[in-house]
Design goal:
It is built from 6 helices and 18 strands. The protein is an alpha+beta fold and 261 residues long. It has an 18-stranded mixed β-sheet that branches. Strand 6 and strand 7 form a beta hairpin.
Length: 261
């Protein structure tokens, strides 16, 4: 007999459908085999599928791309909190997720959902072999944290990039952030992770763990408004809190149903 799993598809970091970053969210009664979870994520074929299991007042949360399990994911965390707040536990004003990156708390703040994430500080570094050629343009600076970050002079530079994904997948980095000062936002960014099966991620919460402290220091301000300028686009309201960052956004339900496995 087939097992039925609830399924939600949510556009995260968006206030309307067909924008932001779509995430699949699958609430589970208990953890299934890792191989099955990975097959479900591959079948969903979105940048991330989130799986969570309730444990008392908290939830265990995991994230998988179509290829691999990851240590931190922002948009699928936002989407998971959106599902819990709106469909599973309506009275809640906050939710705590236990993850590979520790406890992550998401709170309602008006019409925003605000996530408390660890800061990932970046240090200047030399461009690794192949990076500039893969991006097709030389950045003003390169920094290393969990992801590589290439800083450009203008928003137009970031928007114009058309990376060679085959070459970028050969660069020694799980993912590459590109960023610049914004015209209407404090800063803009894009994110590429071909090694994880994601050519370009529409909106990336985890990259802002590095972007927020960098731009807070450079701009001399703690509160930051950010835009990820992928084709779908998304917006994030951020705050530098030293060892932590707050990343807030909106979310919209696109689909609700069940998976039979």
């Amino acid at each position: 007999m087939a097992r039925t799993i609830p399924f939600y598809q949510v556009d995260a970091f968006a206030s309307r459908l067909f924008a932001g970053n779509p995430a699949a969210v699958c609430p589970l009664e208990e953890w299934l085999d890792d191989s099955l979870l990975q097959q479900i994520a591959a079948e969903n074929n979105l940048s991330e599928t989130a799986f969570f299991v309730r444990s008392g007042e908290r939830y265990g949360l995991r994230w998988m791309t179509p290829e691999v399990e990851v240590d931190l994911c922002g948009h699928a965390t936002l989407a998971s909190a959106f599902v819990i707040f709106n469909y599973l536990d309506r009275p809640a004003d906050s939710v705590t997720f236990d993850t590979r990156s520790g406890a992550l708390i998401v709170r309602r703040e008006g019409d925003l959902l605000a996530m408390d994430f660890p800061a990932r500080l970046a240090a200047p570094c030399d461009p690794p072999p192949g990076l500039v050629g893969a991006l097709g343009r030389s950045p003003a600076g390169v920094y290393a944290a969990q992801y590589l970050m290439a800083v450009f002079a203008t928003e137009d530079d970031v928007r114009a990039l058309a990376p060679d994904m085959t070459r970028l997948s050969q660069v020694d980095a799980f993912g590459v952030i590109v960023t610049a000062p914004g015209r209407e936002a404090d800063f803009v960014s894009r994110f590429f992770a071909p090694r994880a099966g994601i050519s370009e991620d529409p909106v990336t919460g985890s990259s802002h763990c590095t972007l927020v402290p960098y731009w807070a220091g450079r701009l001399g301000k703690k509160q930051l408004y950010a835009r990820q300028v992928s084709r779908r686009g998304g917006e994030l309201w951020c705050e530098d809190r030293g060892s932590r960052v707050q990343i807030a956004g909106r979310a919209v339900l696109y689909m609700q149903g069940t998976i039979s496995v």
